[in-house]
């Protein structure tokens, strides 16, 4: 027990020593920075890029810890309208951001910071040799899509409507990551996911891009939450996401840049 | 003195249901409940839960008898394993089933290659997931009854000349019926509420795998009023099951 405590104390010393050292070297303020926590509610599809941004934002703002709650956009909106405390909300579609605005939990106007589109995720090597969106109706093919109630599902529906192709899925999943999981596990032959999710899946899936996906571009808006405990910091985070570093991390995983 | 914590305990169960009732748009309730998708979910839920209960009885009764009567070493470990689904998060159960019966799971692969059968995304997968999580309820209530009663009566019957099969039929089964009944009702109720293992292992498709709990979850993404209405329907069905069947174990008389 004593040993553990001593180790912990040692680690604590090291950590505090490091942080005060780095703040001294950047030469911002002479006093030690105050510890602050910024809480960000973000769509699940932003997991990888926002985690990369967390490191960069924290490095640029000593003493600040960014805490994420990733989830389905509509789930997050429900939590916010039911009183969850957060500083920033980043949604995977306009509809859910509108819901948050109508629910009175957003301050100021939301800004679109990224766009996303669908792709077909298949097993590496594309064993079923899919080439087009219409190939998804092939007999005996197990296709998994998002439920119409979630953003990736409404995008899927939009493409189906525009192309006149009706997919008969074996399952309608609750979020895009679950679609990806079922393709990765081999239980589904193909799944409609966002380009970004397919990109961040590593080598576990291959993508079949289709031109019709351009007809269902999803916009990702970001906004500061009303009564945010760290309103100033929230503003800075939003600017950070909209700025050069944000753009870089977002395009790295395949997000598009919104036309402004 | 006990009334205060007892009242709190009761409130913890009752008040959330009241919250659900208060939140329900009673005017729209009928139209929300009779929507095509919630009726399909209700039907699927009742059918699969009934099938699962039959499965639990067929498989769980022999298991309970073996656990209660057998004397092989390692029985305590076996009993602990049987109870595992009670404490496992359902999602873990779903993943476990997927890695067994999924197309790349070792049994699922064999089924796919030899028979061309795939289990995930089918109604059978829903039933398997429900049996997985519900069977311990049946085994536990039955095993307890087997241990507490029966032994001496059976011995007396045997000394009076009854053959083993007669003993089982005329003595053991009647003694166990109440426990079997309550175990079956509990299994049915648990199957009705199954969510995590189903969505992980079976997927979610209207009329095929989307049971009432999954329907609530799906609706909650877009139309919370309709989700609340379906949730209320689930509560009512569960209450009807428990009240009508009124298992004796639940009334503390087992």
UniProtKB/TrEMBL annotation, chain A:
<dbReference type="GO" id="GO:0046872">
    <property type="term" value="F:metal ion binding"/>
</dbReference>
<feature type="binding site">
    <location>
        <position position="45"/>
    </location>
    <ligand>
        <name>molybdate</name>
    </ligand>
</feature>
<dbReference type="GO" id="GO:0015689">
    <property type="term" value="P:molybdate ion transport"/>
</dbReference>
<keyword id="KW-0500">Molybdenum</keyword>
<keyword id="KW-0472">Membrane</keyword>
<dbReference type="GO" id="GO:0005886">
    <property type="term" value="C:plasma membrane"/>
</dbReference>
<keyword id="KW-0732">Signal</keyword>
<keyword id="KW-0813">Transport</keyword>
<dbReference type="InterPro" id="IPR005950">
    <property type="entry name" value="ModA"/>
</dbReference>
<feature type="binding site">
    <location>
        <position position="194"/>
    </location>
    <ligand>
        <name>molybdate</name>
    </ligand>
</feature>
<feature type="signal peptide">
    <location>
        <begin position="1"/>
        <end position="24"/>
    </location>
</feature>
<comment type="similarity">
    <text>Belongs to the bacterial solute-binding protein ModA family.</text>
</comment>
<protein>
    <recommendedName>
        <fullName>Molybdate-binding protein ModA</fullName>
    </recommendedName>
</protein>
<feature type="binding site">
    <location>
        <position position="176"/>
    </location>
    <ligand>
        <name>molybdate</name>
    </ligand>
</feature>
<dbReference type="Pfam" id="PF13531">
    <property type="entry name" value="SBP_bac_11"/>
</dbReference>
<comment type="function">
    <text>Involved in the transport of molybdenum into the cell. Part of the binding-protein-dependent transport system ModABCD.</text>
</comment>
<keyword id="KW-0826">Tungsten</keyword>
<comment type="subunit">
    <text>The complex is composed of two ATP-binding proteins (ModC), two transmembrane proteins (ModB) and a solute-binding protein (ModA).</text>
</comment>
<keyword id="KW-1003">Cell membrane</keyword>
<dbReference type="GO" id="GO:0030973">
    <property type="term" value="F:molybdate ion binding"/>
</dbReference>
<dbReference type="InterPro" id="IPR050682">
    <property type="entry name" value="ModA/WtpA"/>
</dbReference>
<keyword id="KW-0479">Metal-binding</keyword>
TrEMBL record, chain B:
<keyword id="KW-1003">Cell membrane</keyword>
<feature type="transmembrane region" description="Helical">
    <location>
        <begin position="80"/>
        <end position="101"/>
    </location>
</feature>
<protein>
    <recommendedName>
        <fullName>Molybdenum transport system permease</fullName>
    </recommendedName>
</protein>
<feature type="transmembrane region" description="Helical">
    <location>
        <begin position="49"/>
        <end position="68"/>
    </location>
</feature>
<keyword id="KW-1133">Transmembrane helix</keyword>
<dbReference type="InterPro" id="IPR000515">
    <property type="entry name" value="MetI-like"/>
</dbReference>
<dbReference type="InterPro" id="IPR035906">
    <property type="entry name" value="MetI-like_sf"/>
</dbReference>
<dbReference type="InterPro" id="IPR006469">
    <property type="entry name" value="NifC_ABC_porter"/>
</dbReference>
<dbReference type="InterPro" id="IPR011867">
    <property type="entry name" value="ModB_ABC"/>
</dbReference>
<keyword id="KW-0813">Transport</keyword>
<keyword id="KW-0500">Molybdenum</keyword>
<dbReference type="GO" id="GO:0005886">
    <property type="term" value="C:plasma membrane"/>
</dbReference>
<feature type="domain" description="ABC transmembrane type-1">
    <location>
        <begin position="42"/>
        <end position="245"/>
    </location>
</feature>
<comment type="similarity">
    <text>Belongs to the binding-protein-dependent transport system permease family. CysTW subfamily.</text>
</comment>
<feature type="transmembrane region" description="Helical">
    <location>
        <begin position="226"/>
        <end position="245"/>
    </location>
</feature>
<feature type="transmembrane region" description="Helical">
    <location>
        <begin position="121"/>
        <end position="146"/>
    </location>
</feature>
<dbReference type="GO" id="GO:0015098">
    <property type="term" value="F:molybdate ion transmembrane transporter activity"/>
</dbReference>
<feature type="transmembrane region" description="Helical">
    <location>
        <begin position="167"/>
        <end position="189"/>
    </location>
</feature>
<comment type="function">
    <text>Part of the binding-protein-dependent transport system for molybdenum; probably responsible for the translocation of the substrate across the membrane.</text>
</comment>
<keyword id="KW-0472">Membrane</keyword>
<dbReference type="Pfam" id="PF00528">
    <property type="entry name" value="BPD_transp_1"/>
</dbReference>
<keyword id="KW-0812">Transmembrane</keyword>
């Amino acid at each position: 027990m004593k040993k553990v405590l001593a180790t912990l104390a040692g680690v604590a010393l090291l950590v505090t020593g490091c942080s005060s050292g780095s703040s001294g070297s950047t030469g911002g303020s002479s006093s030690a920075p105050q510890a602050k926590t910024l809480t960000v509610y973000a769509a699940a599809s932003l997991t990888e890029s926002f985690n990369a941004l967390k490191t960069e934002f924290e490095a640029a703002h000593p003493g600040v810890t960014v805490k994420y709650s990733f989830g389905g956009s509509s789930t997050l909106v429900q939590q916010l309208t039911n009183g969850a405390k957060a500083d920033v909300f980043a949604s995977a579609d306009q509809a859910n951001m509108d819901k948050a605005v109508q629910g009175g939990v957003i301050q100021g106007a939301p800004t679109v910071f990224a766009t996303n589109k669908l792709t077909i995720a298949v097993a590496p090597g594309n064993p079923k040799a899919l080439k087009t969106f219409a190939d998804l109706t092939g007999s005996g093919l197990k296709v998994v899509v998002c439920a119409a109630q979630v953003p990736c599902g409404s995008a899927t529906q939009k493409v189906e409507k525009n192309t006149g192709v009706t997919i008969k899925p074996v399952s309608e999943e609750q979020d895009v990551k679950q679609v990806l999981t079922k393709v990765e596990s081999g239980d589904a032959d193909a799944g409609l996911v966002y380009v970004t999710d397919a990109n961040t899946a590593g080598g576990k899936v291959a993508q079949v891009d289709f031109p019709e996906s351009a007809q269902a571009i999803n916009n990702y808006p970001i906004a500061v939450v009303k009564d945010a405990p760290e309103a100033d910091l929230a503003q800075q985070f939003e600017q950070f996401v909209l700025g050069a570093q944000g753009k870089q991390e977002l395009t790295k995983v395949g997000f598009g840049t919104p036309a402004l | 003195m006990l009334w205060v914590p007892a009242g709190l305990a009761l409130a913890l169960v009752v008040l959330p249901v009241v919250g659900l009732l208060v939140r329900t748009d009673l005017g729209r309730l009928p139209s929300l409940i009779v929507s095509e998708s919630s009726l399909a979910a209700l039907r699927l839920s009742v059918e699969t839960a009934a099938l699962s209960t039959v499965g639990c009885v067929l498989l769980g009764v022999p298991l309970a008898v073996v656990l209660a009567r057998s004397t092989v070493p390692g029985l305590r470990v076996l009993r602990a394993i049987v109870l595992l689904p009670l404490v496992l998060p359902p999602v873990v159960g779903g993943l476990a089933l997927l890695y067994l019966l999924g197309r790349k799971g070792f049994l699922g692969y064999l089924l796919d290659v030899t028979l061309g059968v795939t289990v995930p995304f089918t109604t059978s997968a829903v039933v398997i997931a429900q049996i997985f999580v519900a069977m311990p309820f049946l085994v536990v209530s039955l095993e307890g009854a087997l241990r507490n009663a029966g032994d001496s009566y059976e011995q007396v019957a045997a000394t009076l000349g009854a053959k083993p099969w007669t003993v089982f039929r005329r003595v053991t089964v009647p003694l166990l019926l109440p426990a079997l009944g309550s175990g079956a009702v509990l299994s049915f109720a648990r199957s009705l509420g199954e969510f995590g293992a189903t969505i992980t292992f079976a997927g979610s498709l209207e009329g095929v795998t989307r049971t009432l709990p999954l329907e609530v979850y799906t609706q909650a993404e877009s139309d919370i009023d309709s989700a609340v209405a379906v949730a209320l329907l689930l509560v009512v069905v569960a209450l009807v099951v428990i009240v009508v069947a009124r298992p004796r174990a639940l009334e503390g008389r087992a």
